[in-house]
Design brief:
alpha+beta, about 130 residues, 4 helices
Length: about 130
């Protein structure tokens, strides 16, 4: 779970769960990418983690054109990222053609996918990371 622009993002059981509290209006916005009977549990898990101050950083990705994503994994097609309130796949080709730069440390899970699907060595991985 990570806070970005006042919204708490989490991936729970493959679902994107977002919690946002607008202090000025005292409004709580809740979002889950799939409605099921466990939704209330997902929201409870986020609130519990906020109270316990348990946060896990997502890997941050910048696509050329200054579009930013939170990356949380990979599959055979590419990187799994959060775009707005939904999941999107950024194709592996975007990394190899230089369109994607990683702007935070790369999570071990994501790094495994890069090594597996792109066959990059340490120097190749350094070339796709842009941490200031």
């Amino acid at each position: 779970m990570e806070v970005v622009n006042g919204k708490y993002f989490a991936i729970i059981n493959g679902r994107i769960v977002i919690l946002e509290y607008i202090y000025s209006k005292k409004i709580l916005n809740l979002y889950c990418s799939v409605e099921d009977e466990a939704m209330e549990l997902y929201f409870y898990m986020i609130i519990k983690n906020i109270r316990m101050e348990k946060f896990i950083k997502f890997t941050k990705v910048r696509l050329s054109g200054n579009k930013y994503y939170l990356c949380f994994g990979y599959n055979g097609s590419g990187l799994k990222v959060i775009e707005g309130n939904s999941m999107k796949i950024l194709k592996w080709k975007l990394i190899t053609d230089g369109s994607i730069k990683f702007i935070s440390e790369i999570d071990g899970n994501v790094l495994d996918g890069i090594k597996k699907y792109l066959d990059l060595d340490s120097d190749g991985i350094k070339g796709i990371v842009d941490i200031n």
